[in-house]
Q: What sequence folds into this?
């Protein structure tokens, strides 16, 4: 019990410090540009592209897909940047030398970005609903909210996996860009996954977001939790697998970089 | 240019991002019932997005890099005027940005068997040259803002996709609400982009003269603004010597 209390304290302290020291958008101008302007214009751009292709009746399809993909921005960029920033600030060796529980420290890095992802999708989707006059009166809003929260967690799992590569590469942000933008194609954000080649579809269903977006679209059409339960369970499973894989890779990379004190040498 | 060849991010800018936009555009816009004018937006849109992003941001990023490297003040101390230095950087960016069309057209042709059957080569070439000129002028005009205000680059970077919307890179501005069309009309690339897409189809209006004139006219207006901005930067740099802290 005492050990659990200590772990909770480490988690809370680490999450707080992550926010005040490593949350790189924690200025009003930074937040407005990267967390308000960029996601909103991204959603509007793809919704408008979809409206141009198939008419205004399909605007909700594109709005939901892109709003949920924007959630991944916090989960992927935010989490990957956290490790990259430790390296840039010269605090990575200190973090790796600390006796704190690695799993707790690792997960606490994602927590602020999960909350931020949820906030971003609420603002982005809200503005899109107003601009395009989207109709959500049939939507199961509670279930839709659950989808948003779940996707924020699962994409952070993906971020944790690629963030751990930040221990052995200087180009972690380049990796973040590649991962984030590939989701636009692979996860059914703007067109159904079924239109992709069958091999690519296997990759799609091995990624977070794919099932979550599908569930969210069904929730927006009024589906119940029973109808989308399988999709949500699958999304959660994929997210947990990525988070655990991320933790294992982090430990592996940590051990590798410790040998010869190479934490800042890559 | 030589620095870009070894930069992973520069590779992303001409190869990866435009390809992603092209693939999304091709999946969304190319359907069995899709009319060819829509397909043109999918084929060229990704390239235009990449070309613009490199052209208008690279000048700013280079100034920001000078600031981070502590060499911003030295640039002002050299006898070469700032606009000449910026022009060189932006011309390099434009050349690099042109590469964006290589992966996007290749993806369209080999991946989706999509091509432009009705292209008017002469008008397309003139429109493209005017578009490049407008990109050059926009980049040269914006760069002093990055030197004056540290926050200008993140703000404009954050609005990047807003420019894609207002300039009509992947769909015509005519589908936008009136207020957005008005805002887009104030941007020189919007008119040149419209001319480019009109040169790929026989349908719709073909008012090339007006569009070219509008784009070039706006570019001249931007240049007048740029003269004022470059003088302001020069005065601020010499008067306070605190440009690196801006």
A:
């Amino acid at each position: 019990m005492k050990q659990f209390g200590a772990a909770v304290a480490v988690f809370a302290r680490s999450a707080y410090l992550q926010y005040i020291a490593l949350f790189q958008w924690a200025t009003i101008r930074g937040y407005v540009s990267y967390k308000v302007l960029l996601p909103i214009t991204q959603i509007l751009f793809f919704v408008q592209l979809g409206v141009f292709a198939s008419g205004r009746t399909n605007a909700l399809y594109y709005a939901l897909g892109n709003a949920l993909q924007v959630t991944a921005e916090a989960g992927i960029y935010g989490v990957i940047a956290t490790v990259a920033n430790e390296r840039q600030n010269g605090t990575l060796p200190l973090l790796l030398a600390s006796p704190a529980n690695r799993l707790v420290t690792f997960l606490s890095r994602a927590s602020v970005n999960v909350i931020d992802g949820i906030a971003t999708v609420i603002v982005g989707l809200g503005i899109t609903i107003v601009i395009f006059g989207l109709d959500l009166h049939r939507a199961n809003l509670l279930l839709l909210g659950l989808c948003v929260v779940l996707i924020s967690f699962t994409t952070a799992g993906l971020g944790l996996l690629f963030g751990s590569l930040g221990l052995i590469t200087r180009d972690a942000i380049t990796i973040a860009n590649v991962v984030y933008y590939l989701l636009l194609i692979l996860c059914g954000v703007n067109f159904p996954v079924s239109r992709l080649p069958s091999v690519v579809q296997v990759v799609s269903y091995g990624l977070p977001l794919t099932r979550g977006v599908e569930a969210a679209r069904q929730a927006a059409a009024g589906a119940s939790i029973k109808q989308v339960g399988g999709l949500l369970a699958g999304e959660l499973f994929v997210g947990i697998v990525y988070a655990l894989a991320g933790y294992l890779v982090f430990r592996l990379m940590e051990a590798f970089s410790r040998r010869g004190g190479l934490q800042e040498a890559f | 240019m030589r620095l870009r060849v070894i930069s992973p991010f520069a590779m992303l800018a001409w190869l990866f991002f435009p390809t992603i936009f092209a693939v999304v555009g091709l999946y969304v816009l190319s359907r069995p019932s899709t009319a060819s004018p829509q397909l043109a937006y999918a084929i060229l849109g990704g390239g235009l997005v990449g070309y613009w992003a490199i052209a208008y941001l690279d000048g700013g990023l280079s100034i920001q890099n000078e600031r981070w490297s502590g060499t911003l003040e030295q640039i002002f101390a050299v006898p070469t005027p700032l606009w000449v230095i910026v022009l060189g950087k932006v011309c390099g960016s434009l050349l690099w940005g042109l590469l964006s069309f290589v992966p996007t057209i290749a993806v369209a042709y080999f991946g989706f068997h999509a091509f432009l059957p009705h292209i008017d080569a002469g008008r397309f070439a003139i429109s493209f040259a005017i578009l490049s000129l407008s990109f050059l002028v926009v980049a040269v005009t914006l760069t002093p803002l990055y030197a004056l205000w540290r926050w200008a680059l993140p703000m404009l970077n954050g609005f990047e996709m807003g420019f894609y919307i207002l300039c009509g890179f992947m769909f015509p501005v005519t589908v936008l609400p009136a207020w957005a069309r008005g805002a887009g009309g104030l941007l020189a690339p919007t008119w040149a982009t419209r001319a480019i897409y009109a040169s790929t189809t026989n349908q719709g209006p073909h008012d090339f003269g007006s569009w070219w004139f509008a784009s070039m006219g706006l570019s001249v207006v931007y240049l007048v603004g740029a003269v004022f901005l470059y003088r302001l930067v020069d005065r601020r740099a010499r008067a306070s010597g605190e440009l690196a802290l801006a």
